[in-house]
Each structure stands twice: as structure tokens, then as C-alpha cells.
Amino acid sequence: MALKQYKPTTPGQRQLVLVDKSQLHKGKPVKALTEGIHRKGGRGNTGRITTRHHGGGHKRSYRIVDFKRRKFDMEAKVERLEYDPNRTAFIALIKYTDGEQAYILAPQRLNVGDTVVSGKRVDVKPGNAMPLSSIPIGTIIHNIEMRPGRGGQIARSAGTFAQLVGRDMGYALVRLSSGEQRLIHADCMATIGAVSNPDHANISIGKAGRKRWMGIRPTVRGETMNPVDHPLGGRTRGGRTTKTPWGKKARGPKTRNNKSTDKFIVRSRHARKRTQ
User: Fold this and answer.
1) Of the chain's two ends, which shows fewer C-beta atoms within 10 Å, N or C?
2) What average pLDDT does the segment 129-152 reach?
3) What is the model's pTM?
């Protein structure tokens, strides 16, 4: 979909650039496929802020999206494409031949009236879901499971995708958009194509109030705070290294600590930086 610009009739619209959603469904979602969201405004069970910059925002209902795609060998027709306020990608409402409805992540080049199906031997076209063992090498994929039956976890954001680059010993080698190459069990499901709404990266919010509508509260730099509020606070930074509000180094030290899955990473996403 194309980008939509506005006439500069107000200061907020002068820089405003949004995605044109004229081709999306304009009504409400299917009520049976939604559930309520209880938002806490970034506060924990003691009432104190545990996650900063959360709060406010427009009321939402959560769309129950089928990330597992385990209804094999049953065709489903795309009834409409919808906007989902809970994610950057668009979603598609599909209806199976037995009458059941479901939401799935809409890939690029998926249109209303198209047919999608999941199974071990199906056509390689956008929207169809297959195990990694059945997908041809070099195929662009998204919504990739990390464990069989758990549901897609990788490449779900707008415009993202991964590529299947090899298979060996019951595992598939997948190259992620970060440059990381990772081994994933060949029985895990993945969907063909790239995620919809690639123009999301070109959006210009236009004004601070739109961030508040999204439930994001203002962020203040540590350098502008007082010394009592932040390690970098005060009149000058004084040559101090970048730190978090709690005094830990913000750049340099590794934050990933998951030794149990390190063996599945064949090539780190930082390998490209080291060679330069």
C-alpha cells in the first residue's frame, strides 16, 4: 500500500506521513476472534511503575491471531484484510471450507478472494504454511516457529522476512533479517512470503500527541535530568559513559544470556560488524 501525505493545514499535519489504509476493512473485527485487554500503565502489583513510558492510549481489543497454522490440508478463503492496532502488520480474516473463521498475519501480495492452505505438500505461494522440511531452499518465509507446535515467533513485524538457506540432520538453517543464521527444527512451521505493510518504516508521526494515542508516554534524556534522578544528570555530562537510570553501562556489555540456545546460532548477527 502507498503512503499518504496531508496538506499542511495544521503544524501536526505538515510532517504527517501515514500508510494509506483505504483498501482495508472499515468495520469492526469479528467479535468471536477478539478479547479484552487489561492494561496496567506500566505498573506492577504494588502500583509502582516497573516499565517506564507506558500509559494512556486509545482503547483496544486484542485480535486472536492464529500463529500455529496447524489446520492441515483444508483450504481457506481470504475474506478481508484488516488493520490491527496491536501490531505493525496487517491481518487477514480467512474462512475455512468447514465454516470456521480465523485471523492470520497477512503477507505481501495476498489479496481478498485468494486461497491459503497449510500442510506438508502445498503450493509455494504467499500465505501458505508448511514445515521447514517441505519448503524449497532459498524461499522467503515469515512467522517461523522456534519449537514445533509453539506457534510462530520469528519475523512477524511489518515488512520483515527470513530466508531458508539450508537443511542438515533434521534442522533447517534460516538467515534472519539481522544477519544471524540460526538452526531451527525441520518440523517447525513457517509461512511463505514477507510480512505485509513494508511502508511502516516510512511513517512520520507528525506530532507528539499521536504517540500518546498509541499509549507511549514521553521519554526524557538522562543528561537533562538532575544528578539525583540519573547518573548522567547535571549541567554537563562530564565525559561519563552512557548508562541506564540504574547505573549499568548501556553500550558494550552483552545483554543476552541464554547458553542453552547458543548452540543453534551458526552465525551471530554481530559477525558482520567484526569483519568491517
Assistant:
1) C
2) 97
3) 0.91
